[in-house]
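Dear U.,

Please find below the material for section 3 of the report. The protein was modelled together with zinc ion; I have listed the sequence and SMILES used, followed by the predicted complex structure.
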Amino acid sequence: MLEARCPKCGYHCYGWALVKPEEHICPKCGSKLELIHEHKPQTEKKQASENSNLR
Ligand SMILES: [Zn+2]
């Protein structure tokens, strides 16, 4: 889930609606929200071990 915080008034919100740029506006003061990027525990890197058989 995405999190955003207002650097001015400290408004904090979260939700998948934050993927939209229109949601990056603080409803209180109207300033731009800062997205909080937390380290995700799910960092599964798929190793490219697939053999691509191109004809
Ligand atoms: Zn604000």
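For the text of the report, you could mention the following: The chain has a mean pLDDT of 84.

Regards,
Y.
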